[in-house]
Amino acid sequence: MIFDLHTHSTASDGSLTPAELLNRAAENDVSYLSMTDHDTVDGYATLGGQSFPGVTVIPGIELSTTWAGRNIHVVGLNIDPENSDLAAGIRLQQLARQQRAEKIAARLAKKGMENPLEKVQQLANGGSIGRPHFAQYLVEEGIVRDFRQAFQKYLGNGKLGDVRQFWSPLEDVIEWIRAAGGTAVLAHPAHYKLTNTRLRSLSEDFIAAGGQALEVVSGIQTKQLTDKLLRLCDDLRLMASCGSDFHAPGKSWSEVGKFTPLPPGCRPVWESW
Ligand code: AMP
Ligand code: MN
Ligand code: MN
Ligand code: MN
Question: Is 252 inside any structural domain?
Answer without folding.
Answer: yes
